[in-house]
Amino acid sequence: MATGSPTLTRPPEAATDWTVPQDWDRFTAEEHDVWDTLFARQSKQLPGRAAQPFLDGLDVLHLSRPGIPNFEELSEKLMKTTGWEVVAVPGLIPDDAFFDHLANRRFPAGNFIRTADQLDYLQEPDVFHDVFGHVPLLADPVFADYMQAYGEGGLRSLKFGAIHKLARLYWYTVEFGLIREDDDLKIYGAGIVSSHGESIFALDSDSPNRLGFDLKRTMRTEYRIDDYQQTYFVIDDFEGLLQQTQETDFAPLYSELETLEDLPVTTILPEDHVMTHGTQAYALAKAAG
Ligand SMILES: [Fe+2]
C-alpha cells in the first residue's frame, strides 16, 4: 500500500534494494485461482466506476497465461508502454528503498497473495493489491510520471524528516484518490479499485466526505488504515496533479506544515471545496460496535 517502516528487518533472501526473485513457478494452482477470482470480480465491477485510464491500463495485465502475472512478462509489456517495470519484494519495505524504486520507475510488488477464505481481508499489501491496483495506471504516461515524481520527492523528504506528511499525499492520491471525469466522480486509487467493498462505498455511500484536492490540505490530513476512508480528495486530472507535485517547492512547505496542526479525518475547513459533506454514518456505526 503506502510505505513501510524504517525499522523493518531485511530477510536474508532479499537483495540490498529489498527485491527478491518472483519465482513465479512456486505459486500453487489455488493461489493462481485466488488471483483469477479477484481479477474477474473487480474487472466486472469497475466499468463505470474506475477512471478511464485505469480501465484502459487493465490491458497490460492480460498476459499469455491466466493467474498471478509473471513479472518478467508484465515488465516487458509495461516497459514498452511507459518504461516502468515491476519488481518483487517480500512485503512492506523501508521508505528509502521504496522511494528509490519509484524514482527509478520500478514498482515494488508484494510476492504473496491472500488466501481464498480471506478475499476481502488484507493485513499487508499482496500481489493483487499491488499489481491489479497499481500497475494499470503505470501504463498511463502522465500517472507514470507522477509516480516517479513522487519517488523523487520522497527521497528529498528524507532529510526534512517529513515522510509522514508526504505519505499522506500518496495515501489520498495513489491509494485512495477520486477524479472528476465528464462531470462524474470516478475512482483511481489502488486501495479503492482493488477493494470489492470500497469501490462501491467510495462513490455511492453518503457517509464519507468528498473534498476538492488541495496539496497542502491533503498533507495535513490524518488517515485511517483499518477501514474505509472517511474523507476522499477529488482531483480534476492527472496532469494537474503531476504539475503541482513537480512545481511545488516542498522544503518551505514542510516548514509551514510544521507550524500547522494536523487535521483529523472528518474535519471540514471553511475553505474546502465540499462535494459531499458526509454523514459519517458508516464510521459512527462501526465505532458504536
Ligand atoms: Fe498500494
Walk me through what this model shows.
With 289 residues, this protein is α/β, with parallel strands linked by helices. The protein has a single domain (24-287), classed as Aromatic amino acid hydroxylase (Phenylalanine Hydroxylase). Helices cover 45% and strands 10% of the residues. Helix 6 (141-157) packs parallel to helix 11. The longest helix is centred in the N-terminal third of the chain and has 17 residues, at 29-45. The radius of gyration is 18 Å and the shape is globular. The site of fe (ii) ion has 7 residues, from helix 5.
Produce a short descriptive summary:
Helices cover about 45% and strands about 10% of the residues. It is an alpha/beta fold. The chain has a single domain, classed as Aromatic amino acid hydroxylase (Phenylalanine Hydroxylase, Orthogonal Bundle), CATH 1.10.800.10.
Number of separate structural domains: 1
- What is the assembly state of the chains in this entry? single chain
Which strand order spans the largest sheet, edge to edge or round the barrel? 4-3-6-5-7
> Shape, please?
globular
CATH homology superfamily = Aromatic amino acid hydroxylase
Strand proportion, as a percent range, falls in 5-15%
User: How many DSSP H or I helices?
Assistant: 13
CATH topology title: Phenylalanine Hydroxylase
The distinct ligands, each listed once, are: fe (ii) ion
User: Which stretches are poorly predicted, pLDDT < 50 over at least 5 residues?
Assistant: none
In the CATH classification, which architecture applies?
Orthogonal Bundle
Which CATH class is shown? Answer: Mainly Alpha
Radius of gyration, in Å, reads: 18 Å
Class by SSE composition = alpha/beta
Q: What is the strand tally?
A: 7
The largest sheet, given as strand count, sense and whether it forms a barrel, is: 5 strands, mixed
**Terminal Cα separation, in Å?**
27 Å
Average of the residue pLDDT scores: 95
The proportion of residues forming helix, as a percent range, comes to 40-55%
